[in-house]
Amino acid sequence: MLHNKYPFALIAISISLLSAATFAADIKAGADIYEASCAKCHSVTKPMKNKKGPSLLGIVGRSSSRISGYEYSEAMRAANLTWTSEKLDEFLINPKAVVPNSKMKFKGMSNAEDRANLIEFLLLQQ
Fold it and tell me: Whole-model pTM?
């Protein structure tokens, strides 16, 4: 009876490993995505520099509207988010769904692997 359970356990473990491997973040790809999709409006340079959008330097763990010297939209100030990896992922899918009426013009990023790579790149920008 017990041996009948093992194939299911092996399948579950295999699926978990496959999922982890599928979404293993690629920092280089994340840097390329940042350059193509974010760098025009956001910087990650030290010292922190705002452009059309706020600096993304140290974004993970930061409040959504707390960089001095940047004029956030009323919507972003009211959202009062903390940028975790999960919240960034949700935001990158569809920014207007997370913060309606924000100033951000970015339409979203549907590819989960691209989002994971970008977020991993941003995690290193501290």
Answer: 0.79
The alpha carbon of residue 40 and the mean position of all alpha carbons in its chain are separated, in whole angstroms, by 17
Rounded CA-CA distance 119/30 in Å is 7
- Map tokens 């924000």 to a residue: 102
Which domains occur in the chain, in start order? 25-123 (1.10.760.10)
Output the six-digit token pair for 71. Answer: 């004029």
Q: What is the 3-state secondary structure (H, E, C) of 27-62?
A: HHHHHHHHHHHCCCCCCCCCCCCCCCCCCCCCCCCC
Q: What is the pLDDT of residues 104-118, one digit of tens each?
A: 999 999 999 999 999
Is the bond preceding residue 47 a cis peptide, omega within 30 degrees?
A: yes
If we measure between CA atoms, which residue out of 30, 42, 40 comes closest to residue 109? 30
- Note the pLDDT of residue 25: 81
Within the chain, how many helices (H) and strands (E) appear? 6, 0
Q: Provide the strand spans (E) within the chain.
A: none
